[in-house]
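Box 3.1. Reading complex inputs
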Amino acid sequence: MTTRLDPEAAVARPRPRAAGLRDGDKTPHSAAAVKLEQTWRDEPGLIGWLSANGHKRIGLRFVFTALCFFGAAGVMGGLMRHQLATSDSHLVGPDFYNQLFSMHGTTMMFLFAVPVMQGVALYVVPLMIGARNTAFPRMSACAYWLYLLGGLLLFGAFALNTGPDAGWFAYVPLAGPQYGIGKRADIWNMLVTYSEATGLMVAVDITTTILKLRAPGMSLRLMPLFVWASLVTSLMIIFAMPMVMLAANLVQFDRMLGTHFFNPAEGGDALLWQHLFWFFGHPEVYFIFIPALGFVSAILPTFTRRPVFGHDAIVLSLIATGFLSFGLWVHHMFATNLPELGKSFFTAMSFMIAIPTALQIFCWIATIAAGRLVLKAPMWFVLGFFFILLIGGLTGIMLGSVPLDLQVHDTYFVVAHLHYVLIGGAVFPLLAAVFYWFPKVTGRMLDERLARWQFWLFFIGVNLTFFPLHILGLMGMPRRIYTYGPETGWGTLSFLSAAGQVINDLSMLLFVINIVRSLWKGERAGADPWQAGTLEWSLPSPPSACNFLVLPVVRSREPLWAQPGEVNNVSGLSAEIREGLTTTVLQAVPDTRYAYPAPEIWPFVAALSVTVWLVWSLWSVPGFAWGLIPPAVAFIAWYWPNRKEAGEEVSWEIDP
Amino acid sequence: MTRRESMPASVAARLDGDALDVSNLPSYGFSHRSLMWWGNAGMMVIEGVAFGFMIIIYFYLRSLSNAWPDAGRPPDLRFGSLNLAIIVLSAFPTYLAQRACNDLDLRRVRRWLYVCSAFGLALAAVRWYEFTALNVRWDAGAYGSVVWVLLGLHTFNLVTDVVDTLVLTAVTYAKPLEGKRFVDIAENCGYWYFVVLTWIPIYAVIYFGARV
């Protein structure tokens, strides 16, 4: 037991004046349980829906919305593949094609990949660490609305033929004032501001939650690997995302105010944008990849029936990957006129990051070898992840060397590489995670047979779509061309690729059917359908509004395996207000009680007011300044003390 | 006097049968015991990264330029240096306000918040004159762009925190006042140190980057 026990001191302090009903009773229908459910339930009605700030609901909203954007971006990808399936195709024109690939990349990276990983973390992390909500639930609620509004504005602009058309990285001068005419580049800059603000808000929330709201006894050494992955990712986001937000705004200043950051004629530099973008852009890949590694480390022990091999090595690898990922950005710029010596440094760094990833893969293989493999749907997708990621990793090592990179730069070889890495390294683990936690979230199992069909179709489809692109790249087919002549000989492989895309679509259709079918008549899951070891599986499926009727006391990494019939738990938190416990950062010793904020409409209003500002600033320079007033008012109103709540709070307060 | 934040939980959790009774734990704590401290730290890192990169961009562009400033003259030292003096002095009332928060002494908190607010407003006023004394327009060239944005970014933080301080001063009159508001004020003071500490390198860059 790591808790400080000092009964005398406890006796010496008076109990708070208005004790009210307190938790501590584990039985499901006790007075405390009923009261807790009432306290933590969202308010009914539209206002209640807009005000909700429970982490489960916000996390699910993120995941659902991100999957919708995934679908939309997938359709755009499909459209491009079909445009390129034959030579001299006129399905879409060059201008629309530019918008298509820019929207596809922007949506996949900014509106799908990062938000979906953060959404899963928002849902799962508090359950895994024994908390009743996240540290700043209103901030995450506000972040969700900003994310949704930003995404809708992007797609609204696209519908009005104003979608970004300078690629997902919006290089200047193409996106600058001289060539980026119209509002297309402005929309991209605005979307980046939105999605990065969202990412940062959620990252601060998750970091604080992990460091301060863990159940008593869950020291950093006992923290589950998925939580570690979420922590590393969130810290990386906090250090990398401010960059791209700043950079996008500098482009916007060039466009709106006539500054010259990226204008070589006036002392600026176009290459500066590439540095700024990729200093963020490379870690961005790891914001997507590291949570995925966390999924694998969460799923693998459950389906090999043993703790993961080399827990500490995996933690250190995650941290090392986080650090190294900040030293790779120039490998996106090997075709620029940077000093050759500098490039070889970045080649070395690019090779080095393979080491921690390989280390984790070896640990997982050892886990499988030493365990008893249970092949269920989540595990199939984990195995798919190994295979696809490995191919992407191998082409990554090829691209990390300058001469090879120069040869295939801006060809389909790079497209093949990045899709293998992102689909293998993120989409497969994400699907595994959905199959793994779906029973927890909905209380129902997804169908195994449909899952296997989906898995094999996707596995074959992805390889058929993206493997030929390697060869096309080596044949010299450049990226971002809307069509090509028959004499190039690229037709057959492009057609194969389009056929693969159709198989992917079928696979995703099965996924949607499986989810809908299971929500309707899926098998009941029960609390722990996989016999897993982490805390979220101790809760009913779906978990009650307050998550834990009593907060657990943790003494091992897989509490459900090591402490069956759990004896110790926390008691004495209020059942009448949303109360939780903060613990110390390293050892998770109970420190203070903590009143979680109640649901409020202000986060939604604040997100709306920020939207007014950003949209206004797109069309008017004074709007950039005056538009700040509505958000300022909204945020002050959000903070302003509520007399009734303050009164309640004072009545149970104990000063430190 | 021992600083409160350095002390362990003033009342320990207590084992009561099978359960760990936490009902006597304090309902808030100062410094890194409070969640607000961590949120605030996250905010400072985010803005610190932005400041850091603005300074890097400044020297990157300077290294590419034959003449620096490439247009206009270096900024007048007068107002910027005056602001440096005021901002360094403002750390003292901030410290006293923070101490008063730790002692839960509302009268002293209010008194020093007023002083902090006065300092903040004075800084904002002098900042206005700083912009007029930059001696270059933002659209005159890369140099003008980078100094305007650097100064603008710090001004944004400064104004935000002055508004926060004014709002918090008003909040101290709310009744009833929860103990956690003292934590909020203490954290706002912590954020002010960030505004002070970032101004020193930014001042050096803006005013001497074009001279040295």
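In summary: The radius of gyration of chain A is 26 Å.
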